[in-house]
Design a protein that fits this description.
Elements: H1 8-15, H2 20-28, H3 32-49, H4 52-57, H5 59-69, H6 72-92, H7 96-108, H8 114-130, H9 134-151, H10 156-169, H11 173-190, H12 193-210, H13 216-230, H14 233-249, H15 253-270, H16 273-289, H17 293-310, H18 313-329, H19 333-350, H20 356-369, H21 373-387, H22 393-412, H23 428-446, H24 451-474, E1 480-481, E2 484-485, H25 491-504, H26 506-515, H27 517-524
Antiparallel strand pairs: 1-2
Helix pairs in contact: 3-5, 5-6, 6-7, 7-8, 8-9, 8-10, 9-10, 10-11, 10-12, 11-12, 12-13, 12-14, 13-14, 14-15, 14-16, 15-16, 16-17, 16-18, 17-18, 18-19, 18-20, 19-20, 20-21, 20-22, 21-22, 22-23, 22-24, 23-24, 25-26, 26-27
Length: about 550
């Protein structure tokens, strides 16, 4: 063995072969006992000369040497210490799969005390959840909760809060709500402010989603106060994001943007790339509804690249589903459909029953705009089945207005390959009216904080229905294209719709000019000078 080295350069000079083949050949020539002794000397040397920071960053490498020695009876304590270091470093650097392996080993280690096992389980649950592996996360946390009841009640608040988060993301909203309440009680009783703040934040997010009649802003501000008191910067940023979502629900986009930017500053300071990307996705949504399309596109692409690189498939699906709306607005119709279909496919693979209904509704709306009523109907039916009778006001507020516009489109005939624009289905007006009633009743049943938002939707949809009915009685719905208000479609989108019909169903454009000239005039208004749209390409520009 060489003399003790004290710098990283010395270590490289001492242990690196010039050629990997030479190294492997020399290693294979050693007897097993000689290999084990060599690994032991490496471990002893590195454990002696490295700083604690270096031990963390080199933890996985040193752990590999410990594993090669294969003497758990003598090296057990050292193995556990380096498992903790390797797991912590993997989590910090977003290496989820190695992190899961190390955390599982910690939980099963015979020298791990109850505190170590509980901490590892909480981290494991969060890592599995981030990857969309809901069942595994729920199993690990449920098992730990059973143990904590007997030997570690001080951990019940954290574990229950973690399991509630998994249930929330899995669409099991009632169980999630009950667990969050228990987690808050346990955390208050045990003085665990870290767990308390997280549970308060996530409970507020859940209650906003299901439309529970509580003051979400006050709940989140209470959580924010707890996070700031204990210095939990990451949870402070998450709560600011949640507050931004509450402001967006109230259509205060400027207020939401300010809160998102505060969260962005925190995550940049912490170097947390996934959460920074998540904020960019939220900012992109604000830009989208504010008609800042170029900024929205840049933000979506920026966020998507990070989530794909890190394997955060649920976040990727959310971004793709929202990005599809921007692509449609820009006239990239086929790419928009591809993005929406990809989002739904990812959520299906994760069995994410919380997000599938609203994201199916968005995708079905895009299919409706293209005149694919059959494809839209399939997704609407699946979304209804996935709701499973859950009176989830947040999901219904996404699904039912989209469903309403679909029925209006069918009532009016519709344009697109295979459609007969003269074929009216006036019975669909009754279904459209029933959809408004259903949305109104769902709102009343939950006494939701979304009441003002949904009431505005009901008023708008009712006016839309009355106007459509009156116009159809006179012969045509002059302001509609495939059920949607013409003025709601961006000029680039309308240009793409015209180009698509001109190529795939030109006879329908001629029919529109002859029989519904006002619809045609609204469709082509202000689009002459726009560049030719790339409506055909299925490539998602991200």
């Amino acid at each position: 063995m060489p003399d003790m080295a004290s710098t990283e350069e010395d270590l490289k000079a001492a242990y690196e072969f010039r050629h990997a083949v030479t190294r492997d050949a020399a290693y294979q020539m050693l007897l097993p006992s000689e290999r084990s002794e060599l690994h032991r000397q490496v471990v002893d040397h590195l454990n002696h000369v490295l700083s604690e920071e270096q031990r963390v960053t080199s933890g996985a490498e040193i752990l590999a040497h410990i594993d090669a020695i294969n003497e758990p009876e003598t090296l057990g304590p050292l193995e556990l210490a380096y498992l903790k270091r390797a797991a912590g470093h993997a989590i910090e650097t977003h290496q989820s799969l190695p992190a899961i392996e190390y955390l599982e080993r910690i939980r099963a280690h015979e020298l791990a005390d109850v505190e170590t096992r509980m901490d590892a389980t909480q981290r494991l649950g969060a890592t599995l959840l981030a990857l969309g592996r809901m069942q595994e996360a729920a199993h690990a946390l449920s098992t730990a909760i059973e143990e904590a009841h007997a030997v570690a009640p001080q951990h019940l608040g954290s574990l229950r809060g973690g399991l509630a988060g998994v249930y929330m993301e899995s669409g099991r909203t009632e169980e999630a709500g009950e667990l969050f309440e228990l987690a808050i009680q346990d955390s208050r009783a045990g003085g665990n402010d870290l767990a308390l703040g997280r549970a308060l934040t996530n409970r507020a997010i859940l209650y906003r989603h299901i439309g529970k009649d509580v003051d979400h802003e006050s709940l989140l501000k209470e959580a924010l106060e707890v996070h700031r008191r204990v210095g939990n910067r990451s949870s402070e940023g998450l709560t600011l994001m949640a507050l931004g979502g509450t402001y967006r629900t109230g259509e205060d986009n400027a207020g939401a943007e300010e809160l998102y930017r505060q969260a962005l500053a925190i995550f940049r300071e912490l170097g947390d790339r996934p959460l920074e990307a998540q904020v960019w996705g939220n900012l992109a949504n604000v830009y989208l509804v504010s008609d800042r399309n170029d900024e929205a596109g840049q933000a979506y692409v920026r966020a998507l690249r990070v989530m794909r690189e890190l394997g955060r498939r649920r976040n990727e699906a959310i971004l793709l589903g929202n990005y599809a709306q921007l692509l449609q607005r820009q006239g990239r119709l086929t790419a928009g459909l591809a993005a929406g279909a990809r989002a739904v496919s990812i959520l299906e693979s994760l069995n994410d029953l919380m997000l599938l209904p609203p994201f199916r509704a968005m995708h079905a709306s895009n299919l409706t705009l293209m005149g694919d009523f059959e494809g839209a109907e399939r997704h609407f039916q699946q979304a209804e089945n996935e709701l499973s009778g859950d009176a989830n006001v947040g999901a219904l507020d996404h699904l039912l207005p989209a469903r309403f516009r679909f029925f209006i489109a069918r009532a009016c005939g519709g344009f697109g390959p295979g459609r007969d624009p003269a074929a009216r289905e006036l019975s669909m007006l009754g279904k459209a009216e029933a959809t408004i009633t259903r949305l109104r009743n769902a709102n009343k049943a939950k006494s939701s904080s979304l009441t003002s938002v949904i009431n505005r939707s009901v008023i708008k949809l009712s006016a839309h229905l009355n106007k459509t009915r009156e116009q159809l009685q006179r012969g045509s719905a002059t302001g509609l294209f495939n059920g949607g208000l013409l003025q709601s479609h961006a000029p680039s989108c309308r240009k793409a719709l015209v180009a698509r019909l001109l190529e795939l169903a030109p006879e329908q454009l001629r029919w529109m000019q002859l029989h519904e000239p006002e619809v045609y005039a609204g469709l082509v208004e202000g689009i002459d000078d726009l560049p030719a749209p790339d409506w055909r390409s299925p490539d998602i520009p991200a």
